[in-house]
C-alpha cells in the first residue's frame, strides 16, 4: 500500500485523535484517514450522480469499497 504525507493543522489532528485508539472508532490514524477519504469520495460521487456528472467509464468509489478494502 503506498504511503503519503500530508500536513494537517494541529487542531484538526487533535480532533482526529479523539476518534483513534482504544476508546475511539478507529485503531489508528491511517484507518481514520482512509475511512474519511472513502466517505468524502462517496459523497462527491452522490453529488455528481444527482447532477448527471458521473462518467460511465470511470470507476465509482462507492462500488466495492467497503471499510475493509484498501484497494
From TrEMBL:
Entry-linked InterPro entries: Arc_rbn_hlx_hlx, Ribbon_hlx_hlx
Named from the GO MF annotations, one term is:
DNA binding
GO biological process, alphabetically ordered? regulation of DNA-templated transcription
> Keywords assigned by UniProt?
DNA-binding
Which Gene3D superfamilies does the record associate with it?
Answer: Met repressor-like
* Family matches, as CDD domains: RHH_NikR_HicB-like
Entries under PANTHER family matching the protein: BLL4998 PROTEIN, RIBBON-HELIX-HELIX PROTEIN COPG DOMAIN-CONTAINING PROTEIN
Q: What is this protein called?
A: Transcriptional regulator, contains Arc/MetJ-type RHH (Ribbon-helix-helix) DNA-binding domain
Q: In which organism is this protein found?
A: Halorubrum xinjiangense
Amino acid at each position: 500500500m503506498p504511503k503519503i504525507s500530508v500536513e494537517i493543522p494541529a487542531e484538526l489532528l487533535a480532533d482526529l485523535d479523539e476518534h483513534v485508539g482504544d476508546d475511539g472508532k478507529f485503531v489508528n490514524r491511517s484507518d481514520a484517514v482512509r475511512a474519511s477519504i472513502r466517505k468524502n469520495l462517496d459523497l462527491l460521487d452522490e453529488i455528481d450522480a444527482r447532477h448527471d456528472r458521473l462518467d460511465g467509464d470511470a470507476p465509482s468509489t462507492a462500488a466495492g469499497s467497503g471499510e475493509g478494502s484498501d484497494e
